[in-house]
Amino acid sequence: MSALAKGLAQDGEQPLLTVRDVSRYYGARLGCRDISFDLWPGEVLGIVGESGSGKSTLLNCLSGKLEPSGGEVVYETRHEGPLDVYRASEARRRLLLRTDWGFVHQNPRDGLRMAVSAGANVGERLMAVGDRHYGNIRAAATDWLGRVEIAADRLDDRPTAFSGGMQQRLQIARVLVTKPRLVFMDEPTGGLDVSVQARLLDLLRGLVRDLGLAAIVVTHDLAVVRLLAHRLLVMKDGEVVEHGLTDRVLDDPQHPYTQLLVSSVLPP
Amino acid sequence: MTPPAFPALQVDNLSKTFTLHTQNGARLPVLQGMRFSVSAGECLALSGPSGIGKSTVLRLLYGNYGAETGRMILRQDESEIDLATASPRQILRLRAGTIGYVSQFLRVIPRVPTLEIVADTLRNAGFAGDPLPPSKAILTRLRIPERLWHLAPSTFSGGEQQRVNLARVFVHPFPVLLLDEPTASLDAANRQTVIELIQSAWARGAAVIGIFHDLEVRDAVATRLLDMDQFRAAA
To answer: Do A4 and B89 touch (CB under 8 A)?
Structure first.
């Protein structure tokens, strides 16, 4: 088969997440409106827009945390076919969040348990998916702390003793240790030093390529989305104003708002 | 018996205008009604003065810019796709194995070592074996010293970065190559190496489209010239 034929042959596979006409109102106030897209395995979708544009509302609606006022979010499960996230039981949704999905919060304190050690924060997610072997759990925790550049001798420290950037890295290790299929991230690299941010981008890219991890990343950092996201949604006033291939949206923006957003960034 | 010589790429009625909403909706027409085709085993050189839209053509073919009108049909064996209407996923898959693009900038995740950047091309293209030996071979051929392989290229000189950029594309036998000034900041020895790489690319059947300001390079690699002046958009 030619390279072209091979490249075009994979169109049969199922989207991992199918989002149709998702809207969310807070009373009369609009959070987000009529959002539709598909996300495939191994794909990173970036969502950009200024504060108040509805990106966090959308992320919460997609990730099972905030029931939309209308529309549906359907997740293709590993073995049981498609699951309508908001028609499923609360218990099923929580199981999904603990196993197949991961959520990286903007503030690491929202995603960590501050009263237990770093090792326990990572090990706990493994135990939640059924791992019981203490040695394995500790080894996996050490391995993941290393991948996010936290020294092994900090394993028994509590996150309260960590800097903000270290807490964020710990949160990311906690989420990724169970090898989720879909990760939601809300400004994941916001508080990180530039060098650590680069390491995390590289780590995520590897997981996306080698394990087929899919991710939805909300950020205002256009340099991060350029390197990490395959596709981009640009939001303004609760709606998607532009959607497409990341580098095309950034280099050939069509909507006036996207042009403003792109032209307002200082070149690195 | 020879197989029918399909054009690898056939472009018809391609136009591009930029509308700058942040500057009172100013319209910048760049290309109008452009048409050309490139067969497998050819190297087409786009020629014309700067600002005439040569880089724009390459970016349209790579999906980096969206076409305003027209078709860009890419054909290989029995398969074909219109690059002008291809979905983001299709474009990304084509970039992984089919269309290689050497731009004038090296854009990579900071801190990723040079050798890994080159090997990533092979990993993305689904290379079956160990990607490191061919990656080392192309870096050696482009005279990137071994002591730099494990460093990220952000601190390299302009010429070294350009060669990393070339290595990460020429490490894989892309059927289509888009080259934007591939020898711009190279010394004579490296320029000669790049000439040889391009010649062997079209000799193995790749369709190559390039912009070569260096006339010596252009004469050495191009099998055909396309004068862009005829497609200049009326401003």
So the answer is: no
Do the domain assignments include residue B86? yes
pLDDT tens digits, one per residue of B65-109: 999 999 999 998 788 999 999 999 999 999 999 999 999 888 888
Q: How far apart are CA A44 and CA A50, in angstroms?
A: 20
- B200 part of a folded domain: yes
State the CATH number of the domain containing residue B78: 3.40.50.300
User: What is the ipTM score, two decimals?
Assistant: 0.93
Reference B40, options B3, B14, B13, B72; nearest CA is B3
Residue B1 lies in a domain: no
Q: Name every chain B residue with its beta carbon within 8 A of the beta carbon of A263.
A: 22
Torsion over CA of B118, B119, B120 and B122, rounded to 10 degrees? 110
Determine the length of chain A. 268
Q: Which residues of B188-213 are buried (b: 16+ CB within 10 A; e: fewer)?
A: eebbebbbebbeebbeeebbbbbbbe
Residue pair B10/B40 in contact (Cβ under 8 Å)? The answer is no
In three-state secondary structure terms, A23 is strand
- Please give the model's pTM, rounded to 2 decimal places: 0.92
Strands B26-39 and B7-20, bridge-based pairing: antiparallel
Q: Output the pLDDT for position A10.
A: 58
Option in B64, B108, B123 nearest A247 (CB):
B64
**Residue B1 pLDDT level (bands cut at 50, 70, 90):** very low
Minimum distance, in Å, between the CA of residue B60 and any CA atom of chain A: 10
B131: contact with A, CB 8 A cutoff: no
Chain B: closest CA distance from residue A205 (Å): 10
Look at chain B and report how many structural domains it folds into.
1
Q: What domain range includes position B50?
A: 7-231
- Look at residue B2 and tell me if it is in a domain: no
Residue with tokens 């049909």: B73
How does pLDDT run across A184-230, given as a tens digit for each residue?
Answer: 999 888 777 777 777 788 888 888 888 889 999 998 889 889 988 99
A-B C-beta contacts closer than 8 Å: 93
